Every structure is written in structure tokens, then in C-alpha cells.
Amino acid sequence: MDRHLRTRRILDTIRDIPEGRVASYGQIADITGLVRGARQVGYALRTLPDGHDVPWHRVITVSGRIAFEKGSSRFKEQRERLMMEGIAVNTGRIDMRTFRWQPDLDELLWKPSSAWDES
DNA sequence: CTGATGACTATAG
DNA sequence: CCTATAGCCATCA
């Protein structure tokens, strides 16, 4: 698969995360149809172009933590953005059982291209 | 081609 | 809960 197409699909999936919800890197990869692609999701986010409209702050690690080093400026910015939309971040951690995005079947079927359209 | 890198994860202690 | 370690894999130098 072409890398730009893959990146576009990853970002499209992230755009689907509703406000007030979070998803893990691996979850985004799975929904996008990438196998063991968590690191690729991280790479796509690392290379975001200026003027993007991707809610990058809603992507965290599977253990419910912000991936950046605690105390770093990026960590603080992400925590701020999350709290801004009502997501509790306690001691750098987020309760996945409460805030994890759980798209229903309808939502996934609406965008089947990501999973099996190779083009 | 080869080795290093990283916004990842699962597992073990 | 934490750290260490080992897989993971597209990119890059």
C-alpha cells in the first residue's frame, strides 16, 4: 500500500474519534486495517502537516497514558486539550473503560474502505 | 544494503 | 504500579 494513502486513512480514522473520547495507537491501526501498525500511527502523527484538522490529542497509549514524557511541553498541551473536552487525566492517566472510543458496527461499516480495499 | 530510530505493545518480575 | 526486555515495522541516514 502506498504510504501516502496509508497515512491519509490513518488520519481519517483519527478524525472519526468523537470529542470527549480517546483511542489507542493500536486501536487506530486496527480500525484502519493495518496489522501491528501502532508505530505507523505514531509516525503519521509525528509528521502532521501544518494546518491539519486532526484531533491528535485523542490518541494515547493502550495503557491509558499520554505517550509523551511526563512534564514535557507536548505532554502538557495534550493533557490540556483532553481536559478541555471533559476527559479526566489523573496522574497522567486516563480511564480507558470510561473514555475509550467504541465505534458501533454501523460506524465501522460506513467506512469499509480502510479494512479491505487495497487499491 | 545496513543499522538506528520511535507519538507502540505485550509480557515478566 | 514500575522498570526492563523483546518484538514490531515503516523510515531515514
Task: Describe what this molecule looks like in 3D.
- The structure is a single chain.
- With 119 residues, the protein is mainly alpha-helical.
- The chain has a single domain, classed as Winged helix-like DNA-binding domain superfamily/Winged helix DNA-binding domain (Arc Repressor Mutant, subunit A, Orthogonal Bundle).
- Helix content is 46%, strand content 3%.
- The protein contains seven helices and two strands; from the N terminus they run αβααβαααα.
- It has helices at residues 3-15, 25-32, 38-46, 73-84, 96-99, 105-109, 113-116; strands at residues 23-24, 59-60.
- A two-stranded parallel ribbon has the order 1-2.
- Helix 1 packs across helix 2.
- The longest helix has 13 residues, at 3-15.
- The protein is globular.
- The structure holds a DNA duplex (13 and 13 nucleotides).
Outline the fold blueprint.
Layout: H1 3-15, E1 23-24, H2 25-32, H3 38-46, E2 59-60, H4 73-84, H5 96-99, H6 105-109, H7 113-116
Helix pairs in contact: 1-2, 2-3
The protein binds a DNA duplex (13 and 13 nucleotides) through helix 2, helix 3 and strand 2.
